[in-house]
Amino acid sequence: xxxxxxxxxxxxxxxxxxxxxxxxxxxxxxxxxxxxxxxxxxxxxxxxxxxxxxxxxxxxxxxxxxxxxxxxxxxxxxxxxxxxxxxxxxxxxxxxxxxxxxxxxxxxxxxxxxxxxxxxxxxxxxxxxxxxxxxxxxxxxxxxxxxxxxxxxxxxxxxxxxxxxxxxxxxxxxxxxxxxxxxxxxxxxxxxxxxxxxxxxxxxxxxxxxxxxxxxxxxxxxxxxxxxxxxxxxxxxxxxxxxxxxxxxxxxxxxxxxxxxxxxxxxxxxxxxxxxxxxxxxxxxxxxxxxxxxxxxxxxxxxxxxxxxxxxxxxxxxxxxxxxxxxxxxxxxxxxxxxxxxxxxxxxxxxxxxxxxxxxxxxxxxxxxxxxxxxxxxxxxxxxxxxxxxxxxxxxxxxxxxxxxxxxxxxxxxxxxxxxxxxxxxxxxxxxxxxxxxxxxxxxxxxxxxxxxxxxxxxxxxxxx
Length: 465
Fold this sequence. Notes:
Elements: H1 18-26, H2 32-50, E1 53-56, E2 74-78, H3 105-112, E3 116-121, E4 141-142, E5 145-149, H4 155-163, E6 168-173, H5 179-185, E7 188-191, H6 201-205, E8 212-217, H7 220-233, E9 254-257, H8 269-284, E10 288-291, H9 298-322, H10 334-346, H11 350-366, E11 373-377, H12 395-405, H13 410-415, E12 419-426, E13 432-439, H14 444-457
Parallel strand pairs: 2-3, 9-10, 9-11
Antiparallel strand pairs: 1-3, 4-5, 6-8, 7-8, 7-12, 11-13, 12-13
């Protein structure tokens, strides 16, 4: 019997999404303080089983803008993003974080939407893993079944939203870290285009910025509203304005269908069936769906892993100067150390790797001359049990497991393109299965419109049912 953990109850939060709660606050049916108190009570109920919270600021939440579209709704920020007065630990034991003096750029935009921050959500070390697990600490558990992974690297955020503690939480994505936990926990996870939202301080220093911030939610309209609210704070003039997307559009799309990754890692039967079923639904909605190929192979995987290793290497050699004077690279987990050593051997390839990765955006854009969207699995197989991707697994084996699992999402990070994970399927063990829709750079609107239509025709399962 699955050990399911959820906090939904007949309080002021009920099973409302963030949009509904914000409307209640505006109409003075409930106060922001009452919503925060209910979220705290829910957190205290489920946190002993989930282990999803890194830092609590329950007594003094950080308030969002009173005029934001989501004003008064409680939330959490991921532990790699600075919130004034809270430590930023990056999921590692390699240093002792202290409270930071000021909000980071991402937090300022997040707060502009009106969301309040109750604390920090857990993540794996520096976001490198696809599960929120640690060498010697309790992992974050999936609320649908606590024996399974909640995904990563925004695994704590996804667990809190799926369990009903809050309806929306901050997340970010450097290889799938919004979409993977959304897939594992049955949520909506949209990775925006590069430049759609403000970049974080770390992103600005990367030779290739693969990280984009966003949210995980239980409804498409919450994700759409967050993006509209964030755009009010800062709109990128290089991108087409998004505005508030309110529902499906009445237009026929050309949708490519990609069931197996071109990188040589097969998709399992249950995931394949979920993608095929979603394709049938899209056809019934009037869209043209046809199998497609994409111009990327195993070479892209090797380049992305080399870049991943470069990030781990950079953290290890510069952590004392760039992060905290207490940083000790010897305390980094097995995955980080393995990536660092792998990159040390690959270091001479760096210029060629960066050159090829920078060309991905143009090659990716060519896919959308004949298609409006590409439908694929979010992950190549169903959610694994805790331990399968633990940083304690021998590095070579762990890397192989990660590459065969995270076989679709990294392409959008290298290309800087938007994509969304939607929990349209269900595995035989009752855990969610997500499909993945990719779009051209700047075309979040089409993703959201199709997501609204899929949500209407194939409503996601609710954990409380």
